[in-house]
Amino acid sequence: MTEILKRAKILEPSNPNKSTALFGGEASGILNWNDLAYPHFYTLRQRIRSLFWTANEVDMTQDVKQFPTLLKSEQEAFLKIIGLLATLDAPQTVAAMKIADFSTDPSVKSLMATIADQESEHNHSYSYVLSSVTTLDKQMSSFEMGRVDEVLKQRNERIVDVYNEFALNPTIENVLKVMVYTALLEGLFFYSGFAFFYNLARNNKMVGTSTMISYINRDELEHGKAISDLFRATLGENSKYNNDKFINWVYDQFRHSVEQETVWSRYVLADVDGINLREMEGYVKYRANKMLRLLGLSEIYPDYTDNPMKWIRAYVDNFDDTKTDFFEQTSRQYVKTSDANGFDDL
Ligand code: ZN
Ligand code: ZN
Fold first, then answer.
1. 224 C-alpha to center of ligand 2: Å?
2. What average pLDDT does the structure give for the chain?
3. CA angle (131 as vertex; 198, 52 as ends), nearest 5
4. Percent of the chain having pLDDT more than 90?
5. 63 touches 208 (CB < 8 A)
6. Which of 41, 54, 133, 141 is the most exposed place for a label (fewest CB within 10 A)?
């Protein structure tokens, strides 16, 4: 009964330049940023582009010296968490490209291409970090984690199902589900891993790695906003999915994800000094509330509307709030410059 989405063509000059729908619509394939169905997608892309960085820019000299001096438990957690991050970020490159492939809006294709490029750099950065600090054997086993570690496999089970279901059976419902899981990845799944590295950094350990992680974190927050906006727009165009059954499915995924993230953080951070696991659980719930709000839904953890992990605010909220303002300012300046170039509708 549900209709399979056709892959969008590359160029179809008989169609209009402004797309008629995000998915399952028509568009020529010619992208005019001044004639978009959703003009604010331009701003989303600009904000993401403004974050450009490459892994090789980050100086790892100190980390190379420090890694062997870390406690064994810290070294093990370090390698496991990089394994987790790599397992999540590699499919993110492909998920973004697949969303692009089936979208019939050229601005979405372009936005997703930008996100996919950053995801690919995130993945590269994990190889870069590991090749700086450890042996080839240990690098290899870190990247095997997603294939062999039972806790990690269990944790990722639903992501795998939802992503693969969309790849095999691309429908509107399945693309909406992929967006929900992308929002969960960008806004929640990475964060116990990020916390581990920020905790090292606040103890003056592995600051190069943490700097890189903070770049990735900053990107993921922008990706989370972009995918949430795309989700709301797609749901708006396909209102038959805006029903109790689908929305309850989303809430279920959030509850399940918080449980899985909590199990995972207890497994991987148990022997790490400086991270309070109850605070970690609260922080994950706080992140879940935040992502639900971005998706246009309600918070499900009323006790966690504020970040309970106070120390991490210095690392994360710094660019979550302050730097967001900075980006806004950059965007406004860009629009101002662009006025003179005829981009006045932006
Ligand atoms: Zn990423
Ligand atoms: Zn991302």
1. 7
2. 89
3. 60
4. 82
5. yes
6. 54
In the numeric block, the tokens 């059976």 are attached to 169
Distance CA 179, CA 107 (A): 17
Q: How many Å lie between the centroid of ligand 2 and the Cα of residue 229?
A: 14
Active-site amino acid positions = 126
The per-residue pLDDT for 315 is 81
Positions of the chain with pLDDT under 50: 320-346
CA 76 to ligand 2 center in whole angstroms: 25
Give the Cα separation of 23 and 115 in Å (integer).
18
Gap between the Cα atoms of 111 and 42, Å rounded: 8
Q: What is the pLDDT at residue 334?
A: 31
The SS3 of residue 23 is strand
Beta carbons within 8 Å of 324's beta carbon, 6+ residues apart:
221
Structure tokens at 163: 């992503």
pLDDT one-digit tens code per residue, 241-285: 999 999 999 999 999 999 999 999 999 999 899 999 999 999 999
